[in-house]
Amino acid sequence: MQISKLKLKIKGDKVIWMVFLLLMVISCLEVYSTLGKTVYERQGGSPMSMFAKHLFILFLGTCVLYAVHHIKYTYFSRFAKIGLILSFILLIITLIIGSGEKDAARWLRIPFIGQFQPSEIVKIVLIVYVARILALYQDKIKTLDVFKKLIIPIFLICILIFPENFSTAAILFLICFFMMFIGRVNLKYLGAIIGLGIFLLVIAFFVLKSYPELLSRGGTWVNRVEEFFNTDNTAITQANQAQMAIATGGVFGRFLGNTTQARFLSESHNDFIFAIIIEEGGLLLGIVVIALYLILLYRGIQITRRSKGFFGAFCSIGLVIMIVFQAMINMFVATSITPVTGQTLPFISYGGTSFLFSCIALGIVLSISAETNKEQEKALLQPDIIEEENQASNENKEEEALNNTNQKQTEE
Questions:
Q1: Nearest CA to 243 among 334, 331, 327, 328?
Q2: Which of 131, 201, 219, 399 has the largest CB neighbor count within 10 A?
């Protein structure tokens, strides 16, 4: 009896696969260095159990990415509407019964599975939905009706995410805004969104400053913004600790496992892991990490340019921007360019939901890349196929003529 061997076929952009694997290697090294404080505060004992969980998440995420990139990307468009409806339901349930830390009800607990963050999957669903609408209505993209089909779901989703996770809502809105811009939505509508958005943010800030109890996270947001604009370099804050980690890293770093600031940064394995990367690996490793994300962005743009369908183009650029933009925000927080937001560093930070759904997003991008490569191969092979068909046809005609001649000779 013969047992068939399992063959793993890697499709899509090979450079993106390499970037993904390199980011995971960095994740393994840096997460292990930063788990000590977290394990001591939450669990106690050795960090090996938590690190083993991280390794399992990396393996599971890789399997998810591999499975998703084998699914034809057009299937995701078909389920965009139902996915959007389920997203509304999930976010409403999260607001009502969600759990979390620091007064942020961002998580849902599922029996026998554990907790997950609904906003992570909602980001992907909304981006796929926006890509679908932009692709379907390109001939009427300047009209108000199409704009309503786009802005109403975007607005409602972001409003539902906003109370417990302002940074995610803002990032998601900006990504969708950029997608609408490259999708040729009427500029006067987009301009109105910018003006209204700035106005609402200013009003929300001053209202929450006066009445922080209106939202569970209102006081935290106001404090972070004020702390950012009125920095006290002598205060013991997470941002200042991150700055110290970066300053002690220098050009070549203190080498892996020699971090000291990870003992003081409460989220050194998540929100501030980029600071520890520079502390241990120096400016050189920091530049390598930045370059990997920029390469991912460049390859995503190339996939968008080669894609023949509008949906594949809009979907790939939206999902790649989502990943890279989140990485930029994480780095900006670590370097004090922006206020503290709580965004993880994609494919590097410790975490389950964020990593798994980032893998789903990248899997869709790779699926688009695989289909694009397949179409290009067909286009390249088309002339050869036509020539072979013509040659076969000529041979058939010659054979038929020869048979007719032989038949006549036989009759005579």
A1: 334
A2: 131
